[in-house]
UniProtKB/TrEMBL annotation:
Gene Ontology molecular function, alphabetical: acyltransferase activity, transferring groups other than amino-acyl groups
Organism whose genome encodes this protein: bioreactor metagenome
Residue ranges annotated for the N-acetyltransferase domain, each copy included: 1-114
Protein name per UniProt: N-acetyltransferase domain-containing protein
Pfam family, one: Acetyltransf_3
Matching InterPro entries: Acyl_CoA_acyltransferase, GNAT_dom
Amino acid sequence: MALEHADTQLLRAIVAQGRAIGSVGVFLRENGQAELGYWLAQPYWGRDVMTRAVALLCAQTFLRFDVSRIFATPYTANAASRRVLEKAGFSDQGATQTHGCSRGNVCLYVLDRPDAQV
């Protein structure tokens, strides 16, 4: 996949039997963090496809970019998406209100760089 902004994002297609069934990506932010986003076609839900893709992309992100943390903000009501993040090693930092979005509140999940000094 060609990347238009290879220095600020890392995107991957998820392919099964020659067809795109989802995508996962990270987008660098100015504060030394990266934001994670993903989607997966419904027939592939519940098969750990996205958990594996998220874990792999996060490992690649820490190797490729100098970021201290990767974060994601799934909707509070989206238990499956939240479980993907938990299984990939993210920690739940709590719920927060969204602004300008009618789909509900979100939770902040974070994954710190494994070699970060605490």
